[in-house]
Design brief:
Blueprint: E1 9-13, H1 19-28, E2 32-36, H2 40-59, H3 65-73, E3 75-78, H4 81-85, E4 90-93, H5 99-112, E5 118-121, E6 140-145, E7 154-159, H6 165-177, E8 181-184, H7 194-210, H8 216-224, H9 227-234, H10 237-243, H11 245-253, H12 268-275, H13 295-318
Parallel strand pairs: 1-2, 1-4, 2-3, 4-5, 5-6, 7-8
Antiparallel strand pairs: 6-7
Length: 321
């Protein structure tokens, strides 16, 4: 049975939004990484993204210039899927969230992936275990990352029913070696942990907005000044322990909260923004107005603040309450 010590080469398939950050993380763990992407233009963008990401880590004093150069040199690019996965011990798929595209890629992998390699999908919206050819299911797990993956610590891990538990455990160890906070899910559910929690929050956010209880700025300020920083220390379940589970139970018994009706329908506020072409920073306007703002500078400021937040959170994770 494969062990962590058997993992040397990692293939990252897909070099769009998530690929460069994931490749950086694996290379930071000391692994040789080969990336593949369908488009030459995307490949060039990925190379530029890797250089920029590592430059940011140097500026934030998370890496020395020499360490960043070593990490960059661990990452190579392949022209074909077959070339990328040749000799790979761990294969991370992170292509577009399109069922047909993923099915086509996995058909290729069924013909060329090493039979002893662990296959991991980054899918966020589909049950990949229904897409993968049956032949590959004993090798298949999910490692679900969050953007930007070089900064966000969390990766959710879940295995197929046919894959051995050891494969999930190897993935947890591998991700920890790469500086990630990996969590194991006992079985698959669409949305995993955090996306499901976020969707519940979104339901309430749009209920409050659609019904005129407050505006977006009030919601953001209230969240940042209360449960979000508290969660950095206590999480969600331990917070209930500290508050008293009897109080939590009473909230249910007293019906102090009722779920909004029609919560699964497209919210009016969201529909109006999208129909108006207000898609967020990429269009210059969303809940907030970004017109005249240098988007790249804004993203850089976001990343700098994320570095600060996750440095503090790392301290809390290492010495939990």
């Amino acid at each position: 049975m494969k062990t962590l010590a058997d993992i040397h080469k990692i293939a990252v398939l897909g070099a769009g939004t998530m690929g460069p950050g994931i490749a950086q993380a694996y290379a930071s763990g000391g692994y040789s990484v080969t990336m593949w992407t369908r488009s030459a233009a995307t490949m060039e963008k990925a190379k530029a993204a890797l250089a920029k990401q590592l430059e940011t880590f140097v500026q934030e004093e998370e890496l020395s210039a020499e360490e960043a150069e070593i990490i960059l040199h661990r990452i190579s690019f392949a022209a074909t899927v077959e070339e990328a996965v040749a000799g790979a011990d761990f294969i991370q798929e992170t292509i577009v969230e399109n069922r047909d595209a993923k099915a086509a890629l996995y058909e290729q992998l069924a013909a060329c992936a090493p039979p002893e390699a662990i296959l991991a999908s980054n899918t966020s919206a589909m049950n990949i275990f229904e897409v993968v050819p049956e032949k590959l299911l004993p090798q298949q797990i999910i490692c679900h990352w969050y953007a930007p993956p070089q900064l966000i610590p969390l990766v959710e891990v879940v295995k197929s029913e046919q894959a051995p538990q050891a494969y999930a455990e190897i993935a947890l160890e591998l991700l920890k070696k790469c500086g990630k906070t990996a969590v194991l899910m006992k079985k698959f559910i669409r949305g995993y942990i955090v996306n499901r929690l976020q969707q519940c929050l979104n339901r309430e956010v749009f209920y409050l907005l659609d019904n005129g209880f407050c505006d977006a700025e009030a919601i953001d300020l209230a969240a940042k000044a209360s449960f979000i920083p508290r969660a950095c220390v206590l999480g969600l379940c331990k917070r209930a322990d500290f508050g008293g589970l009897d109080m939590t139970a009473n909230n249910y018994k007293n019906r102090s909260y009722t779920m909004p009706e029609h919560g699964d329908e497209l919210p009016e506020t969201l529909q109006a923004l999208v129909e108006a072409g207000h898609l967020g920073i990429k269009s210059g306007k969303g809940f907030y107005d970004y017109e005249g703002t240098n988007v790249e500078s804004l993203k850089a400021k976001r990343d700098k603040q994320l570095f600060e937040v996750f440095r503090l959170e790392k301290k809390f994770l290492e010495d939990p309450v």
